Each structure stands twice: as structure tokens, then as C-alpha cells.
Amino acid sequence: MIIGHRLPARRILHVALALLAALWSGLLQANWNTAALMKALAERPAGQVRYSETRHSALLKEPLRMSGTLRYKKPAFLQKHIQTPFEEILTVDGERLSWEKPAAQKKHELALRDYPAIQGFIESMRSTLNGDASTLERFYKLRLDGKEQQWTLVLLPSDIDMAQFIRVIRISGSKARISTIEIEEAGGDRSLMTLREETP
Amino acid sequence: MSLRSGICWPVLLWLAVLAGSLWWVTAHTRFNTDMAAFLPDSAAPAQQLMVDQLRDGVASRLVLLAVENGSPAQLAESSKKLARALEASGHFSYVRNGEHGLTPAERERLMQYRYLLSPATGAERFSAAGLEQGLQDSLQLLASPAGAMVKQLLPSDPTGAMLNLLEDWGGTGRGPKLQHGVWFSADDQRALLLAETRAPAFDIDAQQQVGDAIRQTFDASRASPVLKLLMSGPSVFAVQSRNLIHNDAWRLSLVAMLLVALILLLAYGSPRLLGLGILPVASGALTGIAAVSLSYGSVHGITLGFGATLIGEAVDYPTYLFTQRAAGERLSDTLARIWPTLRLAVLTTVFGSLTMLISGFSGLSQLGMFSLAGVLTAGLVTRFVLPEIAPSHFEIASRSRTQAMLARGASVLTGLKWLPLLVLAAAAAYLATQYRDLWENELSRLSPIPQQALELDRSLREAMGAPDVRYLIAIPGVTRQAALENSEALAPHLQALVQQGVTSGYDLTARIVPSERTQAARQSALPEPETLRRNLELAVAATPFKADIFEPFLQQAELSRHLPPLQADDWQGTPLGGLAGGLMVRQGEGWVALISLRNVNDEATLKTFASKLGSAAFLLDIKGESSRMIMQYRDQSLRYSLLGVVAIMLVLGFGLRNFRAVFAVLLPVVAAMLATAALLAGMSIKLSLFHIVSLLLVLGIGLNYGLFFNRPALDEAEHRRTLFGVLVCAASTVSAFGVLAFSATPVLQAIGITVALGAVLSLLFAAMWAKPK
């Protein structure tokens, strides 16, 4: 019973610590909301991630699998470099969007504001990666599910024009790390992007 | 007033002419302010084309609108409501505010005719290899951010023809920024709209109605009463300038008339004589309007403004008559004395007007016709009607004290004979050194539109990306189709110019309605249905696309092979249709296809390019061409003015039969004209056509002073009466034209300053060269 004798004190300590931890994480949990997520994302330095994407479409015999890198930098830079199965570089910086196909030596440039639906689509990635809450909220109604360790941010298009094409976008991750972006289009087509963070 | 016994033919004839003119003016006369009326009738094809473009060209029916003074949400709501209401009003071929890049009708046409419209349609595009390339591009597009939007189109458009057309014509690519779904200025302060009126730009009455309708619609539809509507565009300017000129001409003529009446009342001391004195002027004005209306179909606002000219010039005739009358003399006896001089005064002005009448400008010749008919009528009424209807006995204020004072002043002036000679030499020398900078070559500066309105127009155009059309390439053809084909042949060269950065782009009808030959060629490039199906099957097998999804494409490609060629009428009522229609114009027996160039950055290269086109096409520089035209016609009117001076010298020579007298009459007025021109130049006022016209009037008026000053006088009393008469005439002229100098209309202002200044100088110089007692 010596042990038995000695346990209660430790146990009390453990229980107290556990309680404290629970209380602490509960407090933290209570503060885990969209604003906190966006703040956490915004605090990250510029980064680069590898991604793989699977696009399911009623037009295709089999899903189209693509992979490449995503680079992002505050306040408003995003580059999606598709490397397989074809090469294409999509760069958005501020208002400008450029779209380059190195194989065909073609480059298009356009102003994002002229194509609100495309901008909305792009902001789901750009504003999320850069933690730009106000821009994101211009295009979507936001809802955050889950906990800090495993969250899902649900984006519902608020613009009626965009809602014609996009049903919902789900972005999930852990803390300040995004792991998947899933896009569900109107009509049932969808695509899933999986992100693997690289050391910057 | 007592008539002399018996039938009096001059009075009856006068009354008949007055009644006829009155009827014609009230029942049939139209007034306009079309600046094009001041351009030549007998112009070269390029100029004719340019005048047509200014009157009702590519961009002249555009109305630029902006809503301001509210939150972006309010402005956007108002913009949407206004656009819908204006569309429903039926006044417009289209209204755009950024809500839709293309109208549904345009989308439908583009889709239906995509293979006949697409420059990419060619046989290799529909081969197995070509289709596979198209499918690979489509796959990439499907994977892009635009994928969700374009995927509905893919089954019917795997070659991307429609997408390329949308990219070309989507419109929003070059448009203003979007906010709440509508066009906004860069600073978010204004929501922007663009509309094209159905009414032609030169139909100012119709444009006025459209403008009123827009304002009423806006008042009824705006989200808040503090919101403000701004309007601009060529037709808005036309309405604005008509109203300005109209108001100006009437208001100022009225003020001038009152002033002149006041001066004459002071001079005669008799309201009755004033009434009589107005008859020649009034008759002259009425017959002048009627004559212009009869010979030109309508009367220009500026011609009407010249009504004030007649007040200055023709009011003088009865003044000379009344002031010359000795106490108790019968008017017919006075007339017998002064008629030779008065006749010369009328004839010199008639000949001066005659040169204006035969100038190439319809605006100028209207003025010539007006003053010729008016002065002639006034002269004849003074000579033949006034003595008939004047009371046989009347008293006129003697004003002997004033006359004595004048005589003293005049005798001082006669000692200054050298001064006009000196002024003449100095003014001529100054003008010769300044000759290069003397002239105003910009037509727009003659427009009465205030600077503020021009500034608004510029800022709206900039915000809307709707620059003023300055350069056009005109490509003639015997038929419409020929002109279209010729313009299509030029398009690749223009594309090269765009790539070199000479211009940022161009619009031509053939992109919207290709020639029938081109459409047929594209149709024949589409394979037979079986061939196309086979090619497609081969192509699809090499891609991840499902095999059976492209049935719509196969069907529509087959339909495209049998479509009747797309016609301009198929676009009716759409913005693209407006563009296509405006760029094809009939000229004489044939047609001209116009290509409008946007934002030309390198004029030299463009001109070199154009000079190599030969007779197949020519470059039209609307601004440069109109300046050139103004210069050309100004030079011509200068030449006509010199001719006029020669004609006047001949008339004087015949009338005076004495070289010294001709010199004494002519020198003061010529010195006054040159001194006036030099003074204007010294005040850095650029001289225009209208200054020249005014100087011609100074010539007419100043000659009269000289003529009367050099009339042989029987006694001191008559000499003093002459002095007094000329002074009264000069005072009425200076006050009438002095009033015009306050006009906001640059043209009226130019005339006012020039004539008032010229009349004062003429009076002084003529007094210096007056015939000694």
C-alpha cells in the first residue's frame, strides 16, 4: 500500500493537470473560429507546396490526374504550376492573371476584375493560402467545422452567377496547414487537390 | 400716318413681300445648329465621308451616362434599373452597363454562326489531327479555373471556335471595372452606362427628346433623390449647343435691339420716328430669314445670330435719312439729296455679301444670302416705302448743341490724317510677323460647349474605354460585298500593326458580318458528316474524353454547312450590330468599309502604312482632316473677301468717279480692319473664319461712314447733321455688337468683338479723312 499510499498525491496532480489541460484546450477550442484560422494562415511566411489533383468530370472516361506545385506569397500572389500530364503555369498577382502554356509558347493575360466568376474561383485558393479573410468573404459565405487539429472550412458561393458553376468548396487541414481542397461543381463534377507542404 | 392719294405700288409690293415672308417663316422654316452646315458642299470623297462621320458616324450616336453621388450599392442599383428602363423605352438600339458582356441575342448569333465567323475555320482544323489538338486544348481548359464555366460548351464546341469568339467579343476584357455587377469608374464614384440612340445624331429634335426621356427615366428610377445623372456624347453636345446658340442668339438680339432703340430715341427724340426707323430693319430680317430658308431648306442658328448684324447695318439707313433732314423738309426731298450716297452704301454692302454668298461654305453663303437679302430690302424700304408712309409734317430734335460739339471734335480729328496711314503700316507689319500663329485651326474651339462639359466627356470616355474615333481606314468597293472583301484582305496587315504596337486594336464590319465569299469558303472547309464523324472518333480515342459526348458538335457542324450567309440585319438591335452597321457606309454608287483604329500610338508608322495602300484604301484622320478643311476654306474665304474688296472698289469708282475720294473712303476702313485684326492678335485671340466675316462687315459699315463724311455738304448745318448722323449710326452698331461680344458662343463673341472694335476705329479714322468744309 506504500504505492497505494503514494498514488493519491500523484494522481491528484495528474488529474489536476489533466483538468487544467482540458480547461486550457477548451478555452483554446472556444477561440477556434474562422477569424483564428485566417489569422493563423496569414501569419505563415510565403511558401511552396506540392499538390496532386484528381478531376472527375462527366465528359471524361476516367478522372484526370494532375500534379505540380503551388506557390503563395502575401498579399496577393499565387502560382499554380501544373507539371504533369501537361505543363501549364497560372500566375495571379493582384489584379493580373497570366496563363502560360510553355509547350505551345502561348501566354494570355487578363484582368481578374473582368471575370468575376474566375476570380471567385481563384480566391478560394489564393485568399485561403494567404489568410485574406475579407477578400474570401466577398465571394463566399464561410463556415468552419471541426477542431484546430482537424478542421474543415466550407465555402458557399454568395454570388448567384458563381453559384451557377460552383456548389461548394471544402478546405481541410490541421492548424495552419492545409491538406485538401475539394471542389464540387454544379452538375456533379468535382475535383480533389491534396497538398504536401515542403520546407520553404 | 397719312398715305398720299392713289394706289401706292411700292407700299403694296412691300406689304405683299412681308406677308409672304411671314407666312413662309412661320409655316415652313426649320432652324438647325448642325456644325456640318459650316462644312463645304462640294467636298472631295474623303471629306464628304468625314463630314458624314461627324454627322452620323460610328460613334456619334453614343450616349455616355454616369450615375454619381451615392454608395456603390445605390449607384449599381440605379444603373441596373436605368438600363432596363432605357432598354424598354425603345429610343435605343442598345444599352450597356456591364451586366452582360454580350446580349443574349448576340451570344445566340455567335454560337449559331461560330464556324462561319471564326477566322480559324479551315479544313485542317477539322482533320483528325486538328480535332485532337482542339481536344487537348479543351482538356487543359477543363482543368483550369475557367473549367467549371466552359464545360457546358465543350460537347458542342470541341475546337474552341465559340470560346475564341467570346474572347474577341466578350467585351468586358476592355471595359471598365465591375462592381456589384455593373461598370464603375476606377475610383468607385460613378456607375457607368453606354447607350446608342436609334435616332440619327444630326436629328437634334429627336436627340433632344431622347435626352429628356433619359432624365425622366432616371428621376423615376433612381434609388435615392440625391443621386445625380451625368450625360455626354456627340448628340448630347449637339442638343446642348443648339440650345445655347438659340438662347444666345435670341436673347442677345433682343438686348441689342433695345439698346439700339434707346440710342435712336435719344437721337430723334421721337418714338414715332423710332417706329418708322425700325421698319427697314424688321423687313430686312424677315425677308433675310425667308430667303435663306427658301434657298437652303433651313436656317442655321448662327445665321440667325447675324440678325444682329442687320440691326447694326440696316438701322443706319433710316438714321442717315432722318438725321439729314433739314427742318421742315419733306422726306422725299431729303432722299433726293442723299440717295446717291445711300445707294452706294447699300450697294457696297450687297457686293460684300455677294462674295460670302458664292463661297463654298453653306454656312457662309447662308450668311451672305441673309445680309444680301436683308440689306437690299432695308435699302429699298428706306428709299421707296418710308417717304410714302411717313407723316408729311413731323419734328425732329435738333440736337444743335451736340452737333456743335461734334463739329469741334471733328475738326481736331481732321488734323490727324497721318494717323490712319501709320496705323495701317504698323498693323500690316505686325500681322505679317505674326502670320503663322494668327489662325485658329480647330473646329472644336468654335463650339459653344463649355470647357467643363468637354472635361466630363473626356473623363467618361477614359473611364469607359470608349476613346474618340480619330483614325479610320476607308476601303471602297463597287458593291457592299466587294467593300467587305477588300477590307478582309487588309485585316492581316492591320493585325501586324497591332503587334508592332502602332494601334491597340481595330474594328471592322467583316469580323461581325464576313463577306459572303468568306462565309462560303468557311462552310466548304467543314467536312461531310461521315468524314467529320470519322475524324472525331480518331481524335477522341487519343484523349481521356468520352466517345459519345460530342454529338451536338457533329449536328451543329452539319447545320453550319447549310446556313444562309449571316447578314447585317441578323444583328439588328445589338451593340455588335450597331458597330457593324456604322462601319459600312454608302457612298455615291458604291460602298465604303470603314476600319476604326483604337488608340493610335504611332502616327508616323500608320501614315507610312496608309501611303502604301494606293487607291485600294485611304486613311481618314478625322481631326486632322477637319482642321485641314477649315484652313482650306478659311483661305478660300480670305480670297473671296479680297475679291469682295475689289468689287467694292469698282462700285466706289463708278459711284464717286474720283480717285482721291475713293482713297479717302477706303483708306480709313482698311486701316481700321487691319488694326482690328492686329489688336485681336495682340490679345492672343486666334483668328477664325468668323473674324474674317466680321471684318467684311466692318468694311461695309466703315465704308458708309467714309461715304457720308465725304459727301459734299451745302452748308455748315448739313455738315453738322452728317457728323451727327454718322455718330448715331456708329453708336448703334457698337452697342449692338458690343452685346454680342458678351455671348458664351465663341462664334457670336468673335463677331461681336471684331465688329464693335472695327466700327469704333472706322469712325475715328473716317472722321480724320472727312472732306473739309
Description of the molecule:
The complex is a heterodimer of chains A (200) and B (773). Chain A has helices at residues 2-30, 34-42, 116-130, 133-139, 160-163; strands at residues 47-56, 64-73, 77-84, 88-93, 96-101, 106-111, 140-146, 151-157, 166-174, 177-185, 190-197. Chain A is 32% helix and 43% strand. Chain A is built from 5 helices and 11 strands. In chain A, helix 3 runs antiparallel to helix 4 (133-139). Chain A is of the alpha+beta class and 200 residues long. Chain A has an 11-stranded antiparallel β-sheet. The mean pLDDT of chain A is 84. In chain A, a hairpin with a 4-residue loop joins strand 10 (177-185) and strand 11 (190-197). With 773 residues, chain B is of the alpha+beta class. Chain B has 2 domains: 9-32 and 238-446 and 626-768, no CATH class; 59-235 and 521-571, no CATH class. Chain B is 64% helix and 9% strand. Chain B is built from 30 helices and 13 strands. The two termini of chain B are 37 Å apart. Classes of the chains: A alpha+beta (200), B alpha+beta (773). Chains A and B meet through helix 3 of A and helix 6 and helix 7 of B.
